[in-house]
Structures
1.
Amino acid sequence: MSFSSRNLQVKNIGTYIILSAIAVVTLFPLFWLVSTALKSQTENIFQSPPQLLPSQPTFENFVSVWQSNPFGQYLFNSTLVAVLTVGLNLLFCALAAYPLARLSFPGRDWIFIAIISTIMIPFQIVMIPLYILTVQLGLRNTYLGIIFPSLASAFGIFLLRQAFMSVPKEMEEAARMDGCSELGIWWHVMLPAVRPALVTLAIFVFIGSWSDFLWPLIVIQDESLYTLPLGVAKLAGTFSLDWRLVAAGSVISILPVMILFLFLQRYIVPTETGSGVKG
């Protein structure tokens, strides 16, 4: 084995060790959460040194949480809100990003700069006027009221604009020569061509909507409209802060996000733009 090959092998081993250490540090909180959720009431979760694995694993905590609280309703609410948020966010962001990327009109660049500048504004600053507007529109205690602040995002517009700009102009010109309208080009050419960017944005929006706690807490008072984060927070008071049950509720709340990511991660791969033309 040559010196260069041995040096490369040492570097690869070092890289694997570093990545493995990062993975362990990242996954340990999730491992501890699942372990706590599986521990029975007879086990001391605060013992020192801590016991990493439950001595008598049980699903009793999950059953207790599900039966004692309307977690089925919470799950339905979170799913409905997240799906609607993703769909509307992709629609409005794509509609806004397309002209900013492919059309020429006065003030286009300044409009884009103004949109991007809003990323620097913390949500806490606009929260009160946004709440007042939500109340005035009659959206308090409604699903649409939860979705309202996330109908579009500056990050989504930026991401899709950059994706649209990478589409070759030849595809757009060919569609226009075939008599396709601007809306038709957007639908039949641009959207299929930037599918990886759409999937990436969908994952970010879904995770943000699914885990959002502050805004639903402000705009929702009816418990039948609670999302999973509000339902998990309610567990602390319902069970006098039994961390086994809180952990079980947390595991239930994060499972859909993990399943979604595992299902969609294979789509977050750049594909050939030429395959974007359909019909």
2.
Amino acid sequence: MKKTVFALATLAALGSSGTALAQSNVTIYGLIDATISTTNNADSKGDRLTQIPVAWFSGNRIGFRGQEDLGSGLKAMFKLEAEFVVGTGEMDTPGVLFNRDAWVGMQSDDLGRLTLGRQNTLARDFAQVYGDAYGSDKLGLEEGGFTNNNNFKQMIFYAGSATGTRYDNGVVWKKVFNNGLVAGLGYQFGEVAGAFSNNTTKSVALGYNGSNFVVSSFYNEADVGNSLNRSTEQHKSYSLGGSYFFNSLVRLNTGYFHYTAEQGALGKRKDDAYTVSVKFTPQGQMDYELGYQAMKAKNAAYNVAGTSTLNAYSNASFSTATGSGKKSTIFGSAFYHLSKRTELYLAADYMKLSDGYRVASTNGFKNQTELAAGMRTRF
């Protein structure tokens, strides 16, 4: 996926000892995913909208990544990654350049990897192996691909933090053990004077890479919001799931998420969600994905306008009403791989809402269908 296009290697003598300085390198890389989609119920009359939206499967990005060998198995590393909107070229997050990643860290086989800065939440990286059909095959030290676009990419919010699905001011430790065990700890500093715990996130995760399966879990809690009354904004979630590989052709994924949130005068929210999906990779240039997810929310706060049920780990301090209901989505896709770096895809999903679950994009309707075609390439 990544190609090293710039490298520096320095070798020098220190005094008369002949000791070599460490080798370092910098990689410039990127990804462009362009989608054309059409969606029904796109306004109050139920009209259809056809557009070039935010990419369906991968955030468009350009990044810089480097590492330096410090000797004795220890490495220093960094990552800076910016996301843009392919349809317009504008920043994905206005005014924020490196909105995907901006961190520095150190790594060794014995100690694992420790990183500081803006980065994926720990829970996100451990849940992406089963959260939908598009995650990594194994747990590891690298950040995983688990996005939040379109109606079926929503489980990620249960793996969130006080600042969304990435930590601001985060510290993450991960280690892959020789016996297949993978462990991690995550912490997000709130940086609120006089209230150390405000806007903090604490996470622990544990998983196992088997010969033909992966099991993963996390526990996560955050104090969300700017109010000094932290008890009204405490959010918690845990999850358990995994993947099973039937030879090299079929991968089955399934997982369960439980989430609770204190919402002040609105009372306590409780969600139960689950997902199951399958990825079929026959011989040749095609692969196929099919999945289902259900999100059941009890006493969940709406946004200020009352048009949408808030995502998990959202600040509900300005909300005035709640509702209970279910959101279920079925999705499918097919990818045609032109090369190892470039593919074409077709995708679709159908979302159904019941009772008091609301999604603003449906404009009051109880269902929505999305169809998409796209191209993704990496450099």
